[in-house]
């Protein structure tokens, strides 16, 4: 199948150009002679790397993905001082989401143990500053943002689905309610980034990122799945429409948000747009064409000869190419492969 073959090529490029067996993690850019580029430990990038390995494993069943996941799980722990928690609540949420998917895909108990360790730590970030919400950083408890809350709602809902604890569902609802009340524009559904960053209670409405839209869409979809309440799905679709109107170009292509952390942002949005596509016919009619446009542009114009992807999906990247941007490209192609397998190709060209 076309998109599965393209996802294979992207995954092979990820392995060939970024995997570093000496540290059991991915290099943070390529080229990276002798691993010299790894001056910073990008913890949350490694969580997204684990996520795309799960994508490959679920799509192909090939043992190499499971083997690399196991190595990466150990490599991250070693690099993080022998433990999984760190100082950033949003980072830990991404790590927990990745290893929960890995546990579901493999049944490996060590991944489940990692998730529960992280989830216990994440819950400690909730406090009464700004009316609730999970803090962004353990040293900055009064700063609340979407990256520390919407992924936590996704995680809590998925934990409830997997293990059936009513307490996790309560957490998912509580976090979602705070997020919607505090950081979603009631007029449009567009998601703001954060509040009280400078200590004056103000909201960063000018920080407009695909990341924030993606995680709120994901939270709505996951809560709809576990509750059956249509309002969550309505919220998710409304935010998806606002994201396209506010952030996409006239042709529907998502923006260049830079390398570094920003290189992951589009990948987060496309992952959860794909989840939204699976929720209803109406959602598929909106989201699948948007995903298909971006995937087509990425493959036709944004791919290097080595199948590497940069910050701008409409042009091939120059060296060095960040791991973050490569992961976003892989995510998009993996999501298209899933949609193709499930028969969504007939939605690709519909307005």
TrEMBL record:
Pfam family, one: Glyco_hydro_76
Full protein name: Glycosyl hydrolase
Molecular functions per Gene Ontology: hydrolase activity
InterPro entries linked to this entry: 6-hairpin_glycosidase_sf, Glyco_hydro_76, MUG_Protein, O_gly_hydro
Keyword hit for Hydrolase: yes
Entry keyword annotation includes Metal-binding: no
GO terms of biological process kind: carbohydrate metabolic process
Keywords in alphabetical order: Hydrolase
